[in-house]
Amino acid sequence: MRFPRQGLYAITQTENKSIDTIINEVVLAIKGGVQVVQYRDKNPIDERYLALELIKICHQFNVPLLINDNVELAYQVKADGVHIGKEDGAIEEARIRLGVNAIIGISCYNSVVQALEAQRLGATYVAFGRFFPSNSKPLAAPAQLETLREAKLKLNIPIVAIGGVLPENGLQLIDAGADLLAVIGGLFDHEPEQSARAYHQLFL
Predict the structure, then answer these.
(1) Which residues contact residue 56 at a Cβ distance below 8 angstroms, ignoring those fewer than 6 apart?
(2) What's residue 134's pLDDT?
(3) For 133, phi and psi rounded to 5 degrees?
(4) Quick one: which of 60, 88, 58, 57 has its CA closest to 72?
(5) Closest Cα partner for 35 from 158, 137, 176, 128?
(6) How does DSSP assign 62-106, residue by residue?
(7) 139 Cβ neighbours under 8 A, 6+ residues apart
(8) Over the range 35-73, which residues count as b (16 or more CB within 10 Å of their CB) and which as e?
């Protein structure tokens, strides 16, 4: 499964939700136009079961499923890849464990230097953010539009923007250089299919 060159990137919203609710929301989001899904769950009840169910759903729609922060879980459930932050292990280790075809995404916050190093080490894509106030990551350091502009000039892998992204502000991120918009609350705080369609329009 290949990582998309552009589009909407959904990150699961799992807090205080049943497994069935999470799965149903992801289905609706994909129907609305989501191109890639990341399973993120900071307080999992049965992460292996849920990851396996999400893979089934995503693959029915030809959408890749990535695991947040957990290379071993990604390996065990045969996910399409992993998204790792600065404290989640090295790109090289993830690549060895998951194989040459795995999608490996890296959080680079507001650093183009970090993104260039991630690209050199074999990352599939890089993510910058947060760009706007975010309920999911309220303490995350802010990132700048200028970072996207610089990254677009220097990188040749997809660029993801995250953090408080809404249909109302997403276009300025795309115009600055973001290839994908990663969204949690903007999708799952509302009706996911309709919300996804609103984001999808930004890429047309």
Answers:
(1) none
(2) 78
(3) -55, 135
(4) 88
(5) 158
(6) T--EEEES-HHHHHHHT-SEEEE-TTS--HHHHHHHH-TT-EEEE
(7) none
(8) bbbbbbbeeeeebeebbbbbbebbeeeebbbbbbbbbeb
Q: Which two tokens stand for residue 190?
A: 């509302």
pLDDT at 140: 75
Sign of CA pseudo-dihedral 42, 45, 49, 53: negative
DSSP for 22-65, written as a single string: HHHHHHHHHHTTEEEEEE--SS-SSHHHHHHHHHHHHHHTT--E
pTM: 0.96
Q: Read off the tokens for 99.
A: 């194989």
pLDDT digits (tens, 9 = 90+) for 86-125: 765 689 999 999 999 999 999 999 999 999 999 999 999 9
The answer to whether domain 7-168+183-203 has CATH 3.40.50.720 is no
The DSSP 8-state label assigned to residue 19 in this structure reads H
Ranges of residues in the chain whose predicted pLDDT is under 50: none
* Residue bearing tokens 């329009």: 201
Q: Which pLDDT value is given to residue 171?
A: 98
Distance linking the first and last C-alpha atoms of the chain: 23
**pLDDT reported for residue 88:** 55
8 A C-beta contact, residue 44 and residue 196: no
- pLDDT of the residue at 32: 98
What is the structure's pLDDT at 203? 97
Beta bridge partners of 7: 180
SS3 of 142, please? coil
